[in-house]
Amino acid sequence: MKQIEIIKDVLDANRVVAEENRKLLKEAGVFAINLMGSPGSGKTTVLERTLEHIAGKMWVGIIQGDITTSLDSERLQRFNVPIVQINTEPFGGDCHLGANLVQKALHSFDLNQIQLLVIENVGNLVCPAEFDIGENLKAVVFSVTEGEEKPLKYPLMFRECGLVLISKLDLLQYLDVKVEKMVENIRKINSQSKIIPLSAKTGEGMEDWVAFLKQKCK
Amino acid sequence: MKQIEIIKDVLDANRVVAEENRKLLKEAGVFAINLMGSPGSGKTTVLERTLEHIAGKMWVGIIQGDITTSLDSERLQRFNVPIVQINTEPFGGDCHLGANLVQKALHSFDLNQIQLLVIENVGNLVCPAEFDIGENLKAVVFSVTEGEEKPLKYPLMFRECGLVLISKLDLLQYLDVKVEKMVENIRKINSQSKIIPLSAKTGEGMEDWVAFLKQKCK
Asked: Cys staple from B41: which of B53, B102, B116, B141, with CB 3.0 to 4.6 Å?
């Protein structure tokens, strides 16, 4: 009982800071996406391909959340957009980003120079969904290699996310998996979320995703 | 600071119960594996293929950990081995199995009728690695679709695990991923762990894995 009370306190404290972040972002006219998903679902690869489309055309900023490395930030450096790396290891090796760490990162940007902020969370289909970080949109990258039933097994993530990017479409032909079934399972949890199937490898679906981003940052 | 102290208390309390579990298993001569990995890494599929090899030849028991469904247990029912489902949802939707839930499950088995107990943990490459549940061996299923660098990004899991099953070898030919590089990255974190590459789809490597299990349960 004690433990549950404390967890509530932590979540409440997080929510207060998340609201501050949201206000900060709103004042600067920034649209912020909290990009989540399992390890290896393709978050960074989608982001690389996205930056190929929009870097230089939109003002983009990136926050990279990771437990201990800056490998993903290094992959994105060639795009010459502002990137702030958050490592959770000095803070207990947290399995998710909290609003306080994101707030510190926000202060490292000139937010008036940013239209779109993508916050890549720690790879984890469970815990990040519990923590509001002040984003405008929660999105999950869900790869076809993970199997059709994951929305049912990890419902909080799919309930919280307004956008699902079904990734790695190029591998579909080698798997016993159907996108229709993935969509059907997402719909059992969330009837409203936008769903965009894509492949960062072949480029299929990337135009829909980029159009969605442009529309959000008008 | 308060929060960190409390987390220590939780981990200490967990460790005490884990030791009780370990004693219980030892007295009954059970070898217990804590099977972890990302969502969709192939834990249940590996387990299905494993049971095809050993069900009826060894006394096997399964504990299935999941947040909210019993989908994985249902997939294993055809093997007619004792299965106990643990759902963490009534306990806060925990992102990992704790020793206390495992202890409750242990009391549902006739442990004297079991040689090998496989405990499939919640799909998560982060949190389950922190919790001793009284197992004899921690193992991680790490699929080739997750990418080569994951041991560096999720070091605690690979440090804790005495066994790594590199899964989905059948998909390797469609990916820009090398098993040698995965092994090299595992070795940067853990020089001792046993590594078995396999494909539950083609059966490649399954004999090595089954031989390993038989040897452990002699």
From this structure: B141
How large is the average pLDDT for residues A3-11? Answer: 69
Q: What domains appear along chain A, each with residue ranges and CATH number? A: 2-216 (3.40.50.300)
Q: Which residues pair with B32 in a beta bridge?
A: B117
Task: Tally Cβ neighbours within 10 Å of residue A65.
Answer: 29
Radius of gyration of chain B (CA): 17
Model pLDDT for residues A168-201, shown as the tens digit of each residue: 999 999 999 999 999 999 999 999 999 999 999 9
pLDDT of B1: 44
| A3–B68 C-beta distance less than 8 A | no
Strand order in the sheet with A194-197: A83-87, A60-66, A116-120, A31-36, A137-143, A163-167, A194-197
Reduced to 3 states (helix: H, G, I; strand: E, B; else coil), residue A188 is helix
**What Å distances lie between residue A153 and A10, A34, A150, CA to CA?**
25, 21, 5
Q: Which of the residues B73, B120, B145 would you substitute to probe the A interface, choosing the one with the greatest number of A C-beta atoms within 10 Å?
A: B145
Longest Cα–Cα distance of chain A, Å, equals: 52
Six-digit token string for A70: 């800056």
